[in-house]
# Entry
Amino acid sequence: MSTTTTTTKPIDPPASPPHARRSWASLRQAYDLALAGALGAVFGLYLYVELVRADSVYVRDALAGAIIGGAIGFFLNAWGPWRDGAWRKLARAVAWGTPASALGGAVGLVLGETVIGALQGGLLGRAASWGVLGLGIGLGQGLADRSWQRLTFGLIGGGLGGFVGGLCFEALRVSLGNRYDLSQALGIVILGGGLGLCLALVEQALRRAWVQIASGRQEGRIYLLDHPKCRLGLDERAEVGIFGDAAVERRHAEIDRDARGYVLRNLAESGATRVNGAVCSSDRVLNDGDRIELGRTSLIFRRR
Amino acid sequence: MIRIKIIRRKHPSPVGRRWPEGPDEGRGVSESVSQEAESVVAPATLIRPSARPHKWGSPRSRWEKDSWRRRALIGLGFLLALAGTLAAQEPPPAQPEAENTVVVTGASQQDFPRIAVQFELKRPDGSFIRDARKDEFRVAEDGKEQPILEFQAPVTSESVPTTIVLVVDRSLSMRAEDRMGSLKEAVATFLDRAPEGSRIAVVAFGSDVATICPFTTDRVRVRAAVDGLRPGGATRFYDAVAEALDMLDREKGRRAVIALTDGEDTSSREANLAVDVAEARRLGLPIYTLGLGTEEAIAADDLKTLAMTTRGQYYPAQRAEQLKAVYTMIAERIGAGYSLVYQSDHKLPDGTLRPVQVFHQSSKKAGETAVFIPGMVVPASGWSPLFLALTAGLGGLTLLPSWLRRRDPGPGRPTH
# Structure
């Protein structure tokens, strides 16, 4: 709830609109990813407690970790493409992210069980073991993204979220007199939410160059320009997929990173690519804050 | 025992009556137990002055000294009786009933929610009481009494399933001062003293580890196997202990490993101290270690650790002749162990350390231990309404920003 108010309150219309827009988009991204992680965690926990029946502790743990990790990975990866309505993109993102997180979760939970065993339970034991579970899922996420940065921040986010979530679970469990429903559900929400939030914050802190969509259905969405060549267009495989605008072509433009910096290259036959209002027919070096227009959709280029 | 029943009838306290029925209704056991103890013991002091417990703040008197002398005599007589008929049914000892101590030697949660607890009942003079009965004990988990499902006393009409693995050293150094001969004699004595019906196996180690006698109740066979040992080879102590633990993994009831070595482990390949400790703790069984020889020659600290961490005991024997006495002590110790199984009413594996207390009616103080139940994520089902509420809440939160912006288009929306 508090996140919601922070997302909306700082927006002060007459003040600097581009800055407000930017921070709004970043906050929205963090908020959405936190919610996606939390939803995934709740779904995962529910599936686990309702479906898994195993006598062996470690079999149960491995399954629990796989289900919870898989669900968190699914939601975190599915969220972006889902908002874009890009179903094939969603399927591809999920096909990588879910198994990786599931594997990370399974390993994390089994290791966490040995941690809580070594510490013989307690507040610290629970927090540390959940932290290990979060580390596992964050590791899985980082591996799925094949990026060291994401890996580091997945680890930080997962570890921190898991630790706080575990702490909250154990404290609530004890104070509620051994009730597992509310305490564990809240704990897992904090784990998933913390993971999602940290992944988003990390991305925002470390991103070098990105575009933010400023109009249309995907307004507010942020795409990292983290490949040497990023495609812009209606294509589901494009790094910056722009959907719901009939005037955008399948391969509309691309942004290359070379010695000059970030270079926008028009590929559209219609030639309807503009930068700061001027038509861009071939190449153009982009500067921070440039407004790119593809069809009726405008994007802001940002770099640090 | 009859005396207790009479007393109970004379002083029917609600607590006393409630005991045998099973778990109480959320009432703290420590409180109930102390009440029980008072209600039993207070009249006992009236009936028989010598039974007055001095721990409970009553003034000391000449009865006290009398009682100690009597107790010592009784203890001696009891020991003598024990030496003769270890496993036979003994008459109820007429010892004073306070100040016995319950010593918990092990607890395991292998069959969770059934939890097995092993314990001993000791008199103040250190001798063991072997014939206490099920209804004299109470077990509490987390301060809440639990019904005892299974109970085994050292002395019962039915034989107690006891499984023991003797791990013996047949390395070359056992040739010195006829250690092998003393070991064979000591094992023979042990076989005579071991609890009736014990299943015993022997693992011998030198450069290799071999089960020279599988589990059997046939003591002649065990003895023949040990008599056939010839010294030679290195010392693979930890591998041999690991093998013994592996054999006991499939056994039920009272289990123990008695491991003898006369030198430092030199050539274990698979196991080490940590592995053996972890495995024994997982199985919840004690390892009794015997170090034969001088402190320098044996890794006494490691043997001590192995015994202490598994709730066994370390017995040093400087000379080979002492082995016989040590094996006899261990046989007695194993023979004095009780075990019980209770069902935890807290059936979810929830990653908590649960304090377990075993009370005997003759003692105000409980034997205490704790079992850790693994389960960092608790498989607690049945929260569908909460799950739906959470999902709906989180789903609502995801839609909230769009909804807010539709109502109040802020600067995030381009102003064209």
Notes: Residues 288 and 302 of chain A are 5 Å apart (CA to CA). The two ends of chain A are 31 Å apart (CA to CA). The first helix of chain A runs from residue 2 to 8.
